Amino acid sequence: MKQNIGVVGLGAMGNAIASNLLKAGFHTTVWNRSPEPVSELVSQGAVAAKNVGDVLKCEVVLSVLFNDAAVREVFLESGALASAPSGTIHVCTSTISTALATELLEAHRSRGVGYVGAPMFGRPDVAATGKLNMVTAAAPDLLEKVEPFLSVLGKTWRVGDDPRIAHVAKIAGNFMIGCAIETMAESAALISLNGGDPGLFLTMLGETLFNSFIYRSYGSAIASGKSPGAPSGLQLPLKDVGLTLGEVKAVGMRAPFANVLQEQLQCADGRGLGREDWSVALASIARTMLS
């Protein structure tokens, strides 16, 4: 018999994940703070929970929430975690601070609930195809228990026993993506301002020295001015670079690139580009950076 899986948070990512779990035959219970996204999944066979406490009665609960505030509200401030049966496993896929991850880990342990850090790399279109990359960390026995359904969503990369390592790895990875986008945006502007074709330049590098999905996908977006998929807006990358700066401050290191990235994103947001994908927004700002 398939496991009972709960999914909390039904934005574009959460819906794609829950849909894939249903297609794989898992008994799936869903909940969202606003009810609208739930009906689509119910039509696919999901069970709608009345509250988070009901979802936490599932053997495994996967949360797909936006930020620290949302995770804190749903699992800590609501009191729902206190009603979770001992032995329940919560898999947190959100990009959150290690400070909150520490608080969550302690709260879960005190109630006999397992906690797995499993933030995801991938856009909603990647989630829909079951090709996410998930950075996971928890006690080995917990990871073994959740692997059957995580494998439906994509590939897992175990980075340790401490869930906080998974969350900081996701923050660091997002920071690297942002730096790649910013350097491509500035380089494309340099080529363009000298009369060259930035599209040819970025295509060449994306197929040679920087032959990876990030450089090919975002390089194409920078050259064309068209978002790679549905525009995600700048709220998400601004949150992520803020998390990066928070983590580096916590360990007492300097991260000058993170400060530059934050400055560029804030500049783009201030110029009315807040609804654009960060690749398009940063490329637009780079083209106007004339001394």
Explain what you see.
The protein is of the alpha/beta class. The protein folds into 2 domains: 4-161, Rossmann fold, CATH 3.40.50; 171-287, N-(1-d-carboxylethyl)-l-norvaline Dehydrogenase, domain 2. The protein is built from 13 helices and 9 strands. The protein has helices spanning 12-23, 38-42, 52-55, 68-77, 98-110, 124-128, 140-153, 163-193, 198-206, 213-224, 235-251, 256-270, 278-287; strands spanning 4-8, 27-31, 47-48, 60-63, 89-92, 114-117, 120-121, 132-137, 154-160. Strands 3-2-1-4-5-6 form a 6-stranded parallel β-sheet, with helices on both faces. The protein has a 3-stranded mixed β-sheet with strand order 7-8-9. The protein is globular and about 65 Å long. The termini are far apart.
- Encode the helix/strand succession as letters: EHEHEHEHEHEEHEHEHHHHHH
Largest sheet: 6 strands, parallel
* Low-pLDDT regions: none
The shape, in one word, is globular
CATH superfamily of the largest domain: NAD(P)-binding Rossmann-like Domain
CATH architecture of the largest domain: 3-Layer(aba) Sandwich
CATH topology of the largest domain: Rossmann fold
Count the DSSP helices: 13
Q: How large is the radius of gyration?
A: 20 Å
Strand content: 5-15%
The total number of structural domains is 2
- Strand arrangement within the widest β-sheet reads 3-2-1-4-5-6
User: What portion of residues is helical?
Assistant: 40-55%
Structural class: alpha/beta
End-to-end separation: 65 Å
- Average pLDDT, rounded to a whole number, is 95
The total of beta strands comes to 9
The CATH C-level class name of the largest domain: Alpha Beta
